């Protein structure tokens, strides 16, 4: 079986994959490492490759920001498959408001600690969560590195990519308010799936993952 690497989204950790069935694969969870201020998503992806010894012929699974980093990793080494969930694969799929925040970069003047303490305000943007998932969401956010969160917000806004790696599989929901499915091409759409469908639509995601992981 191939080695599987899991990468979480911004403000989260790999507990977001708690409901995902990885079919007894050899799994490595990729934790965030502190970035340099000058890191791009490309240079940060290389740091993850080095830190976690990600090898060719691996499977990289990324959720949200983790999906973007999975794409950057797959551009650097020939992986067996790249699977991105609730994410984007090229910068042309970025939402319209990215250009607004590039013009008015208000995130630069807000302390990173503020972002990690606003779970009660951010949570409604992601869709309905069970009590258990809401607790996990808040716990992941408040335990996130403020330095990392603030860096990542800028890195995502200025991400430029038009290369789609070979063997990339894209899963997204049609109710995702962060990355609209209308701007995304060549993806499997989960009807009713929100940005946090990895929590509440895990059964459907598992059905899609099973044939990809069994190859």
Question: Could you give a quick summary of the protein structure above?
Answer:
By secondary structure, the chain is α/β, with parallel strands linked by helices.
Q: Mind telling me the CATH class? A: Alpha Beta
How far the N terminus sits from the C terminus, by CA atoms, comes to: 9 Å
Largest sheet: 6 strands, parallel
Instruction: Give the helix/strand class.
Output: alpha/beta
Radius of gyration: 16 Å
Helix/strand layout:
Elements: E1 3-7, E2 26-30, H1 41-52, E3 59-63, H2 65-76, E4 81-85, H3 97-103, H4 112-116, H5 119-126, H6 131-142, H7 146-157, E5 168-173, E6 188-190, H8 197-200, H9 202-214
Parallel strand pairs: 1-2, 1-3, 3-4, 4-5, 5-6
Can you walk through the features of this model?
There is one protein chain. The protein has 215 residues and is of the alpha/beta class. It has one domain: Alpha/Beta hydrolase fold, catalytic domain (Rossmann fold), CATH 3.40.50. Helices cover 40% and strands 13% of the residues. Helix 2 (65-76) links the parallel strand 3 and strand 4 (81-85). It is globular and about 45 Å long. The model has no long low-confidence stretch (mean pLDDT 88).
Main features:
single chain, 215 residues, alpha/beta, Rossmann fold, 6-stranded parallel beta sheet, 9 helices, 6 strands
């Amino acid at each position: 079986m191939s080695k599987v690497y899991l990468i979480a989204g911004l403000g989260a950790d790999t507990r977001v994959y708690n409901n995902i069935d990885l079919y007894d694969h050899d799994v490595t969870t990729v934790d965030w490492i502190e970035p340099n201020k000058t890191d791009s998503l490309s240079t940060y992806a290389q740091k993850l490759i080095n830190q976690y010894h990600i090898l060719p012929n691996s499977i990289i699974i990324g959720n949200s920001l983790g999906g973007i980093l999975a794409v950057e990793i797959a551009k650097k080494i020939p992986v067996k498959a790249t699977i991105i969930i609730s994410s984007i694969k090229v910068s042309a799929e970025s939402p319209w408001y990215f250009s607004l925040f590039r013009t008015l970069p208000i995130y630069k003047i807000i302390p990173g600690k503020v972002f990690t303490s606003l779970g009660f305000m951010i949570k409604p943007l992601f869709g309905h969560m069970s009590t258990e998932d809401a607790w996990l969401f808040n716990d992941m956010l408040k335990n996130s590195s403020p330095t990392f969160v603030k860096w990542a917000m800028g890195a995502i806004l200025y991400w430029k990519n038009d290369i789609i790696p070979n063997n990339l599989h894209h899963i997204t929901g049609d109710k995702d308010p962060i990355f609209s499915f209308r701007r995304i091409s060549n993806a499997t759409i989960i009807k009713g799936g929100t940005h946090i469908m990895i929590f509440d639509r895990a059964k459907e995601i598992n059905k899609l993952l099973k044939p990809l992981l069994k190859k």
